[in-house]
Specification:
Elements (H helix, E strand, L loop, with lengths): L2 H15 L3 H4 L14 E2 L12 E3 L5 E3 L10 E6 L6 H13 L11 E6 L6 H15 L10 E2 L3 H11 L1 E2 L1 E3 L4 E3 L4 E4 L5 E5 L6 H11 L7 H9 L1 E4 L4 E4 L1 H63 L1
Length: 305
């Protein structure tokens, strides 16, 4: 867990649980007992259990496979709808970042939110969904961004599969958890985690493009992502990669050198071909001139004879 995530988790837990002054003075690298097991264990490239069953915001039984269907990458979030602080910060931060991303929800990518509270039902899920979709704005498909609820067993199975550690505090009735979103490939593999409540638009765009294996976004996005930037887990963002940039520069230089050599060789061949053609024309002309001057002499000599 990063330092920033620890600070957020500890601060939220203190606010939600009415912690003691001692807990409020926790240093960034210290975790209270209430946060044992809370955090993110990254399970990159592992598969999300798409067979798990949940209930959507309309009360219909669904499986995750209906949303991770091989067509688009998915941003998966685990929250709960009565969360007093951290869930709202996470989802609002996601919306703020996505507003400046020129990708369309439901066409280029999907979002799926699952409640970690088994006592929450479709009505509360639908209420939260309406609010967040209104905040996102734009023309969004009615089926976009499902808010799901489920049984304790299936919630725990999903959380364990993606490495999302959380705990229920009986005294406060609230859940201790981390601010995190997970990017899933169209075929259901975990591509990336972002553990924060602020999500820069460029990072979101690159993460979606990366999760889609370059199928989403423009050619420029793919070029920049795979040749100029790399994901820094410590910084929690995409950063310029000196090695990738140098490699790209070396490749471009090599292409230019080879192209220049081929161009010069072509010019040289054209020059040689032109010289050979000129020499041939000159020789033919000399023979014609000499032949032309000798014929009249012979004819004249013959007439004189």
């Amino acid at each position: 867990m990063s330092v920033s995530t620890r600070i957020i988790s500890c601060g939220v837990l203190a606010a939600c649980l009415g912690s003691s002054p001692a807990a409020a003075q926790l240093l960034a690298d210290e975790l209270p007992k209430e946060l044992d097991g809370v955090g993110i264990v990254q399970r990159l490239d592992e598969r999300v259990p798409l067979e798990l069953e949940f209930v959507d915001h309309e009360g219909k039984a669904v499986t995750l496979a209906e949303y991770v269907s091989g067509e688009r990458p998915v941003i998966l979030t685990l929250n709960y709808y009565k969360c007093p602080m951290l869930c709202s910060l996470t989802l609002n931060g996601l919306i703020d970042g996505l507003r400046d991303v020129d990708l369309r929800l439901g066409d280029d990518y999907d979002i799926v939110t699952v409640s970690i509270n088994p006592d929450e039902g479709p009505e509360l899920a639908a209420q939260n969904r309406r609010g967040y979709l209104a905040s996102l704005g734009g023309d969004v498909s009615p089926s976009a961004w499902p808010f799901l609820t489920g049984t304790q067993e299936n919630i725990e199975a999903l959380a364990k599969a993606i490495g999302f550690g959380y705990r229920f505090d009986e005294q406060s009735g609230e859940y201790a958890h981390t601010a995190s979103i997970t990017f899933v490939t169209p075929d259901g593999r975990i591509s990336k985690y972002m553990n924060d409540v602020l999500f820069p638009p460029q990072d979101l765009r690159f993460a979606v493009v990366d999760a889609s294996n370059g199928k989403v976004g423009t050619l420029i996005d793919t070029l920049l992502l795979f040749n100029c930037f790399q994901w820094d887990p410590e910084a929690g963002s995409f950063v310029p990669s000196a090695w990738k940039i140098m490699r790209l520069g070396g490749t471009i230089t090599l292409v230019l050198i080879v192209g220049g050599i081929l161009f010069l060789l072509r010019l040289e061949r054209k020059g040689r071909s032109g010289d050979h053609t000129g020499t041939t024309h000159s020789s033919s002309g000399s023979e014609t001139d000499s032949g032309g001057s000798s014929d009249p002499a012979l004819q004249t000599g013959g007439l004189q004879a």
